[in-house]
Design goal:
Blueprint (H helix, E strand, L loop, with lengths): L11 E5 L2 E5 L3 E4 L7 E2 L17 E6 L2 E6 L3 E6 L4 E7 L10 E5 L2 E6 L2 E5 L7 E2 L12 E5 L2 E5 L5 E4 L7 E2 L12 E4 L2 E5 L5 E3 L5 E9 L18 E4 L4 E4 L5 E6 L5 E5 L5 E3 L3 E2 L10 E4 L7 E7 L8 E10 L5 E8 L5 E6 L4 E3 L2 E9 L3 E10 L9 E10 L10 E7 L8 E4 L4 E2 L1 H5 L3 E9 L9 E6 L4 E11 L4 E5 L3 E6 L15 E10 L8 E4 L1 E5 L5 E2 L3 E5 L4 E4 L11 E3 L6 E5 L8 E6 L4 E7 L3 E5 L6 E8 L5 E9 L2
Parallel strand pairs: 20-27, 38-48
Antiparallel strand pairs: 1-2, 2-3, 3-4, 5-6, 6-7, 7-8, 9-10, 10-11, 11-12, 13-14, 14-15, 15-16, 17-18, 18-19, 20-23, 21-22, 21-24, 24-26, 25-27, 28-29, 29-34, 30-33, 30-35, 31-34, 32-33, 35-36, 37-39, 39-44, 40-43, 40-46, 41-44, 42-43, 45-48, 46-47, 49-56, 50-51, 51-54, 52-53, 52-55, 55-56
Length: 655
């Protein structure tokens, strides 16, 4: 310990050149590797903050200079020539906190404490609050810079990394194998992290990045020449480790990884050729891993989708989004039709339809290149006489100028019900609670919708939606179908999708209810080899500006045949809202009701002869012990508090 320090447990130590600095209640300095020590003058408090009596703090090497953040929230820089401290920033913290820390991350400086985090990108001249929506904690425990990649420890969420200077973050491993609260360091580009439970963890490889562009190689020379545009929305995959990246609006991608000898390739349709078809990832950071794409086969394939952004409510307007997409190799125009339900009143659309004939709307859509889309916004009103529970059916269709090779996706039916109340921030699987073995065998897609609404009192400047996909889904088959507003999206890690609505300026529901809603819709396929009884679950997190996330409901889609036999539509219960699993069942039968019952319901189970189970319930999730029941077919009913039949269902017991 430095002479005169007494009992000494340093807050931090740093080398700056050949000089060793150590901090506790003062700053110690040694020029002979710790053999002898002296102290440097204490700093003086300026007038920007109230001062406190403590002079201890956390030191850091910022571009070869000594910086300190005090327990009270002052940031100082030390001039070794004049022996003078300069106050750079103050984030005054009521009382003392020894959790304040300071980090040098290339061209950025981050200071963190119990009041949050702040960042400077101009050597400490100006500071701003730092609260990226994709970092799961308000204050990270530690930061480190490795090969221009930022890494941060986030406690129970594990280690997160960023390859864009802290703008967006993603977990390095999901789920995290340990509680990442200890120290974070690197050796030869390999990360080491201390856990909260007295252990040190190391990644298996060095932390690197690969970047490049996926482009349309018009002259087939494998070089991106002038006029050859990048292709947006292409998923790239590391085959062995199942890590993903996506191209942005200019076709560029960046993939952060710490594995070697893996195969990187873009995921493209069968009619595309890429040169090269893949790269073997090295153990170093590389740029210009470019993929030239050509289209040797002419395929005409257009798809259409229709989604209601908000619900159908009597007396209220509803915004809808119609999306036409070119999924083939031929650049071509198309004709799009929308047949609105006769119950609905057409109000307006953007762009304006080419023709309106009653409730039939028609648009002529200009030429679309491969993997691009056109969105059409429609506003309708559900008239007041419409009854709750009424079915709404709208049909969208597209006719490409060249006969479609795969016409099955040229038509889309939107089926919904008129309802009176709803959760404005939710997630829904369009296929419902059940995905049949036949649908799985046919390699059909699941469609998911995340809806959100600004229920605050001020417009939301930006919105981020983070969706971590179920491990039962094949990330490489992801397709963005539609969005209510201009969107950027990316896939990182092993299936973490971020949807970014920058400059959305979504109005508050109190001032503009119809336009306070938004959504994103996507499709994805299941992995091969799933079996009956497996459940696909998903939850999304919605971030409005810098606020804490709103967690949606968790969707559960079971690989099984539907169990519903009967629905009493007179009481307004939809046919897809009851979930029962596993089926067949052996010991425990799970029955999930559509929501927490406002009053008790009654569950009854029958075999082919008698009633074998009856119980009242007032909870959403119900577990029934069926271990003593004989094998065979069973039938069930759900009754409301008045004894009215809501649903009838069936299942099999097999021990």
């Amino acid at each position: 310990a430095p002479v005169g320090a007494g009992w000494y447990s340093p807050t931090s130590i740093e080398f700056i050149g050949s000089t060793l600095y150590s901090s506790k209640d003062r700053i110690f300095r040694s020029n002979d590797l710790g053999v002898t020590w002296d102290t440097i003058p204490k700093w003086s408090f300026g007038t920007s903050c109230n001062s406190i009596s403590e002079f201890s703090g956390y030191i850091a090497n910022i571009t070869g200079q000594l910086w300190v953040v005090t327990n009270g929230g002052f940031v100082f820089k030390y001039d070794t020539i004049s022996n003078v401290w300069t106050e750079m920033f103050c984030f005054w913290s009521t009382g003392s906190s020894n959790s304040n820390k300071l980090y040098n991350l290339g061209s950025s400086i981050i200071v963190s404490g119990r009041v949050g985090m702040f960042i400077s990108n101009d050597a400490g001249l100006t500071w701003n609050a730092y609260a990226p929506s994709t970092l799961p904690v308000t204050t990270a425990y530690n930061f480190i810079l490795v090969n221009n990649i930022w890494a941060a420890t986030c406690g129970a969420y594990g280690v997160y990394i960023s390859n864009d200077n802290g703008v967006t973050w993603a977990p390095i491993q999901t789920p995290p194998p340990f509680y990442a609260r200890g120290g974070l360091t690197s050796l030869n580009s390999k990360l080491y992290c201390g856990s909260y439970y007295n252990s040190v963890w190391a990644r298996s490889g060095t932390l690197e990045t690969i970047s490049g562009v996926v482009f349309n190689d018009l002259n087939n020379n494998n070089i991106q020449d002038a006029g050859e545009l990048g292709i947006k929305g292409v998923v790239l995959k590391l085959t062995t480790n199942s890590m993903y990246a996506t191209t942005d609006s200019t076709g560029h991608y960046i993939l952060t990884y710490d594995v070697t000898a893996d195969t990187l390739s873009p995921v493209l349709p069968f009619f595309c050729n890429t040169n090269p078809s893949y790269y073997i990832t090295p153990g170093t950071t590389v740029q210009n891993y470019n993929f030239a794409v050509t289209f040797p086969i002419s395929v005409s394939d257009f798809s259409v989708d229709l989604t209601n952004i908000s619900i159908f409510r009597p007396g209220f307007q509803t915004n809808m989004i119609l999306t036409v997409r070119n999924e083939g190799s031929i650049n071509q125009s198309s004709i799009v039709n929308l047949q609105l339900d006769a119950k609905l009143q057409y109000d307006s659309a953007s762009p304006t339809p080419t023709s309106v004939n009653g409730n039939l709307l028609t648009w002529n859509v200009d030429s679309l290149p491969f993997n691009s889309s056109k969105g059409i916004s429609i506003t309708i009103t559900t008239p007041i006489p419409t009854l709750l529970g009424d079915t709404i059916q709208c049909i969208a269709s597209v006719i490409p100028s060249v006969t479609d090779t795969f016409p099955s996706n040229n038509t889309y039916e939107l089926n919904s019900n008129v309802i009176g109340s709803f959760d404005p921030n939710d997630k829904q699987c369009v296929q419902g609670n059940y995905f049949s073995p036949q649908q799985l065998q046919n390699d059909e897609e699941l469609e998911f919708i995340v809806r959100f609404q600004n229920t605050g009192n001020f417009p939301a400047s930006f919105i981020h939606v983070v969706d971590t996909l179920s491990p039962l889904l094949d990330v490489s088959t992801f397709k963005l179908i539609s969005s209510s507003h201009p969107i950027k999206w990316s896939i990182t890690g092993q299936g973490r999708i971020e949807f970014v609505f920058d400059n959305i300026n979504l109005p508050a529901s109190s001032t503009d209810e119809p336009n306070s809603h938004g959504l994103v819709k996507y499709s994805i396929k299941c992995k091969k080899g799933l079996t009956i009884g497996e459940a696909i679950t998903n939850t999304a997190n919605i971030y409005f500006d810098f606020n804490l996330p709103i967690n949606t409901n968790t969707t559960t889609t079971l690989i099984a045949n539907p169990v519903i036999l009967y629905v009493n539509n007179q009481v307004g219960v939809s046919s897809y809202e009851l979930l029962l699993y596993p089926n067949p069942a052996s010991n425990i039968l799970n029955i999930i009701l559509p929501e927490e019952p406002k009053k008790f319901c009654t569950l009854r189970i029958f075999n082919s002869i008698n009633l074998v189970y009856s119980s009242t319930t007032s909870v959403k999730n119900n577990q029934i012990d069926i271990a003593s029941f004989a094998d065979g077919f069973y039938y069930g009913t759900l009754l409301n508090e008045r004894g009215e039949l809501l649903k009838g269902f069936r299942f099999v017991i097999r021990h």
